Structures are given as C-alpha cells and as structure tokens.
Automatic annotation (TrEMBL):
UniProt-listed InterPro entries: ConA-like_dom_sf (IPR013320), DUF1349 (IPR009784), UCP022704 (IPR015987)
Pfam families reported for this sequence: DUF1349 (PF07081)
Annotated organism of origin: Streptomyces gancidicus BKS 13-15
Protein name (Swiss-Prot/TrEMBL): Regulation of enolase protein 1
Length: 202
C-alpha cells in the first residue's frame, strides 16, 4: 500500500506485516500485532523469518530532518513507536519510544549484521518527540519532551554515502513480547537540511 502524507515530500510504502496504517487530520496511526519486532540479537546467528514489524517508509533526497510527536498505547514490555532508517536487510536503525521494560524510555537500535541496543532517557507518560536527520553518510537521532529543546541521542552511519543516500526512512510499530499496541505520529515535519548543531538543543 502507498500512502501520501502532505507534510512529507516523498510517498510512503508499507513493508513487513500489516500495520493498518491510516492518515487523517494530521495524524498517522499504525498498529503492531502480537510479538512483532525488528531486531537481530547480537547473541544469535540469524534473523528469524518471523522477526519483523510493520513499517511505512519512503525515500527522501539529500540532507533532511524528519520529525514526529509519537504516542504509544503501551500494553506490554517493549511496545514502541519508532522512526526507522533502512539501508539494507542487515543495515537499519530505530529511534524508539519504548516501554523498556516498565518505564517509557527513548532508546535506539543500530543494526550492522546484528543489532545493538541502547537506552537514552526516560519519559513521563506515553508521548515524546523524535527526530531523525541525515547528511552525506551520517544519520543523527534526537528526542525532545516538548518539541522545542532537543536532546542528542546518537550519531552513526550504515554504509557509504551512496548507500545511505538511497535509504528508506519513516515509521514503524512493535510489540515484541506483547499482544500488540497502537501508535500515533502527529506534528509531522520535514526539513530539507541537517541541524545546525547536534548538541546545542536546537
């Protein structure tokens, strides 16, 4: 399924399991089904075929920032709403608001063959602002409690500039050990440039 969102200059396409994606009045909604996740355990050798989660992705050009306020209907540990970057089957990254395992937390996963997993800061309630940015071969993750003051979370790459320039970027939902959850993304914003300073809160 393809979905055009007026705030974004590129179309989005669904990947993975059905997320029942919908968009209305500035709000994007997606569902994660039971035990749906996108993670390659570093202690294991392979990605199980069932280890996938609903994703809605598109291909922005050049430098950009993608911003969304994310609200998760937490029902089980590790339920999450995600901004997602995909370069290849074993090269992708997630910026999540996750119930980790019993406190809402901003966390990140970067997968280069296998996944890592890192927590950033906890959140009161079920809502936070997330931002993914790209310049050249570099990606940056930021999060914010109010959409104004941004906390730098991570700087990384998933390949050379040609590979990262062709990345798919967008939204995902997950419920790794639960029975599913609903996630909404609103206050969507696209900026065609890299942040002026990664660490000054802008």
């Amino acid at each position: 399924m393809d979905l055009d969102i007026p705030e974004l200059p590129f179309p989005l396409r669904t990947y993975g399991p059905d997320g029942s994606w919908s968009y209305e009045d500035g709000v994007l909604t997606g569902w994660a089904g039971p035990r749906q996740d996108r993670f390659v355990p570093p202690t294991g050798e392979s990605l199980e075929p069932a280890a996938d989660a609903p994703r809605l992705l598109g291909a922005p050009e050049g430098d950009f920032q993608l911003i969304a306020r994310v609200t998760v209907g937490f029902a089980g540990s590790f339920d999450a709403g995600v901004l997602y970057v995909h370069v290849g089957e074993r090269a992708w990254a997630k910026l999540c608001l996750e119930y980790s395992p019993d406190v809402p937390t901003v966390c990140t996963v970067v997968t280069r063959g296998h996944s890592d997993d890192a927590n950033s800061f906890t959140v009161d309630g079920k809502t936070v602002w997330l931002r993914v940015s790209r310049t050249g071969r570099a990606f940056a993750f930021h999060a914010s409690r109010d959409g104004e003051q941004w906390t730098f979370v991570r700087l990384f790459t998933l390949g050379d500039e040609k590979e990262t320039g062709a990345a798919l970027v967008g939204f995902a939902t997950q419920s790794p050990i639960g029975e599913g959850c609903v996630v909404t993304f609103d206050h969507l914003e696209y900026r065609p440039h890299w942040p002026p300073d990664l660490r000054d809160g802008s």
